[in-house]
Amino acid sequence: MGSADDALPHGISKDLREKAEQTGAAIAKHNAILLTGATTGLIYVVGLRARQAGALHIGISPASNEREHEKEFKLPTDACDAIIYSGFGLKGRNVVLVRSCDIVIFIAGAMGSLNEFTIAYDEGKVIGCLNGTGGVADEMDYLLKKFSKDTGAQIVNDSDPAALVKNCLTLVTG
Predict the structure, then answer these.
(1) Which domains does the chain have, with CATH numbers?
(2) DSSP bridge partners of 106
(3) Residues 59, 66: Cα–Cα separation, whole Å
(4) What is the 3-state secondary structure (H, E, C) of the chain?
(5) Residue (of 75, 74, 18) closest to 49 by Cα position
(6) Residues 64-104: tens digit of each pLDDT
(7) Rounded CA gap, 62 and 20, in Å?
(8) Of 26, 133, 146, 174, which one has the fewest beta carbons inside 10 Å?
(9) Residues 16, 135: Cα–Cα separation, whole Å
């Protein structure tokens, strides 16, 4: 989960793109299945890299069909092995996406990612935050200090994509 906007405040920096690619590669290295919002920006970079490295990448679209996905939501199809067209719009898609994941990893992220975080936290998920990427991923401690409740969610913070993925998987698999 994270920034889906190609423009971000100043575009996707080289460092941020590299971290996204490293995250995708780490997911593939552990033979994990990647679920994303079948979207643009950093999430597209993660998904494309994971798929290129051999991971199965399934996208959950807010659209009802491929035409709506591409034309109305202006979302790509080339980074995913398969896309599930939820027809639930962006916020409904977020619920389906997050509830389908064992681990929810955040890279940067704005308002849509904040929505995904609240769902993941309420669902008691393992949540990984790639620190140093900005947005929701860097504000997790603040958010939890201000709005904490016991849900059983486990938070993992790391600035190294490979370590973050490995540590999150360890919490799920033991």
Answers:
(1) 14-173 (3.40.50.450)
(2) 129
(3) 12
(4) CECCCCCCCCCCCHHHHHHHHHHHHHHHHCCCCEEECCCCHHHHHHHHHHHHCCCCEEEEECCCCHHHHHHCCCCCCCCCCEEEECCCHHHHHHHHHHHCCCEEEEECCCHHHHHHHHHHHHCCCEEEEECCCCHHHHHHHHHHHHHCCCCCCEEEEECCHHHHHHHHHHHHHC
(5) 18
(6) 999 999 999 999 999 999 999 999 999 999 999 999 999 99
(7) 22
(8) 174
(9) 12
Rounded Cα gap, residues 173 and 140, in angstroms: 23
Tokens representing residue 76 in the block: 């790509």
Polymer length in residues for the chain: 174
Taking only the tens place, the pLDDT of each residue in 3-59 is: 887 655 556 788 999 999 999 999 999 999 999 999 999 999 999 999 999 999 999
Q: Which tokens is 21 given?
A: 């690619």
The string of pLDDT tens digits covering residues 117-135 is 999 999 999 999 999 999 9
